[in-house]
Amino acid sequence: MAELENRFTWSLSRDGSFRYCPRQYWWNYYGSWGGWKAEAPGEVRTAYVLKSLSNRWAWVGSLVHSAIEGLLRQAQAAGADGLLAFERPAIGVDRELDALSERMRREWSESRDGEYWRNPKRHVGLIEHEYREAVPPEEWQAMHQRARAALRAFLESDAYQRIRRSSPTRWLPIEQLDSFDFEGTPVWVVLDFALERPDGGIDIYDWKTGEVKPESDRTQLAIYAQYLHSARQIEPTHVSTHLVYLGQTAREFDFRVGEAELKEARGVMRASIAAMRTRLRDPERNGAAREDFPLTDDLERCRVCAFRRLCGRDGA
């Protein structure tokens, strides 16, 4: 089997890590590389495991996304008959919420018991458990209720009703990692959900469980529109985007991608890629040194970072 190569690529999550803390970015994409190997050095293996951890808020978002993905994949797998899957008792709201609760309990227990150290790809790990943070039971219960409320909001949303009325044969691959080339750099994207309209255009949906900030989040959807132009030759003017924020209720923000949004998205990617590459010792081979990626000065950020032990900021 060929040796995996740590190539330079770009994504919005990669950009977010770089902006949050250059050292966190280095651990995520360089310091943890190869940590899956049996012969990996101890620090590399530790970084690889810590990289897999999430905090309780991000965990809620992942759970809700996964529940929605599973529901839609069931229907898509049935092809033209998938519409019938939405009408079966198995797709009832209470059933879906109970399944979410059961998964939360299972993953919380796995994390508490440190199962992720054996296999971080198979078991969920939470920063709160890794660092023995004193999270009161009522806070965990609040996370549970937050997840259930978000999933219920989706199942009762107008967006979900529109999806139920569409044919699964027109859906694009769900939550599938893909990439496109931007000025020589591979850019990774994962669409939550997209479908082809009868007129040949595309509707993109993106679920959010965090802060409602459509103006900044729309850049992400403009990047998605550029991806569709590259992968499917769909003109961005034929792409409609829908940001669906899931809280106690669903709030949807719709917009079409125009040249101004595309120009802004290209500018974000271009500037971010340049900043990341500037810190590389060997840009051609994607070679990076830890000391060229400084620690953040904001200790508040360290307190919620999975790598704080490796950075010597465990007591920050």
Summed over residues and divided by their number, the pLDDT gives a mean of 94
Rg from alpha-carbon coordinates? 21 Å
* Percent helix: 40-55%
Kindly, what is the distance between the CA atoms of the first and last residues, rounded to a whole number of angstroms? Answer: 42 Å
CATH class of the domain at 170-270: Alpha Beta
Major beta-sheet overview = 4 strands, mixed
Strand arrangement within the widest β-sheet reads: 3-4-5-6
Strand content: 5-15%
What is the CATH third-level topology name of the domain at 170-270? Lambda Exonuclease, Chain A
Shape: globular
Please count the beta strands (DSSP E, at least 2 residues each): 6
Structural description of this entry:
The chain has 316 residues and is α+β, with helices and mostly antiparallel strands. The chain has a domain at 170-270: Lambda Exonuclease, Chain A. Helix content is 47%, strand content 12%. The chain contains 12 helices and 6 strands. It has helices at 12-20, 22-31, 42-51, 56-77, 82-85, 93-112, 127-130, 137-155, 158-164, 214-232, 259-278, 299-302, and strands at 177-182, 185-190, 193-196, 202-208, 239-246, 250-256. A 4-stranded mixed beta sheet has the order 3-4-5-6. It has a two-stranded antiparallel ribbon with strand order 1-2. A hairpin with a 5-residue loop joins β3 (193-196) and β4. α4 (56-77) packs parallel to α8 (137-155), α6 packs antiparallel against α8 and α10 (214-232) packs across α11 (259-278). The longest helix has 22 residues, at 56-77. The radius of gyration is 21 Å and the shape is globular. The N and C termini lie far apart (42 Å).
